[in-house]
Amino acid sequence: MNTESTKNISEDDVWRQLEEHLVKSEDDQGYILPLELCDLWNTTASNLDSPLAVKCLEHAPELTSSARTRATVLAVMAVISFIGNVLTIISIKNSRRRRRNQNWSAVYALILHLSVSDLLVTVFCIAGEAIWSYTVAWRWGNVSCKIFKFSEMFSLYLSTFVLVLIGLDRFVAVRYPIRAISTAKRCSRFVAGAWLLSFILSLPQV
Q: For residue 82, which of 46, 115, 47, 49 has the smallest C-alpha distance?
């Protein structure tokens, strides 16, 4: 008799504790429960004939000192990288303007595209991650998150592919100096292929 009474009391205490933390979901299709009470709920709900629809809610992330430091370091890196790449693009453009009557070297074209791709990496990978680290959670909706992740992967792919093209260009120039294929016209086709391939490979992020 005492055992049954103790059991009923403990069950009542459990239900009282759960009811205090159960919150109606926004879509009115169930309830939300803190993560630390989910195991207790699963044990209790297993004895019910028709348990409630309960979703376990994880704790909201917080801005820690390490996250703040990471965001600061990434922000400084983003500023330095942005200035450096912009100055590189301006320098190459001015050099091309001065060499208007001369052949445009493929190396200049590749470095220009590398600077553009690194500028995209700076904006979406470094600066974007700095903002994300500071805000802790993404706050701008699902669509913008997909666009951001697509841009992030696209810039990384493009930067990598352009680096590969620079390596191939230097290999051909050294190994086959006479039949070098590093003309600006032919190089532009490879660069266009790098942009297209980066776009295709980044589509799964959408």
A: 115
- Return d(Cα 14, Cα 44) in angstroms, integer: 8
- The Cα–Cα gap between 120 and 206 comes to 18
pTM: 0.67
Rg over CA atoms, the chain: 29
Q: Given strand 54-57, what is the order of strands in its sheet?
A: 23-24, 31-34, 54-57
Tell me the pLDDT tens digit for each residue of 156-165. 999 999 999 9
Nearest to 18 by CA among 1, 40, 50: 40
Alpha helices in 99-140 (DSSP H): 106-120, 128-135
- Measure the CA–CA gap between 134 and 62, rounded to whole angstroms: 9
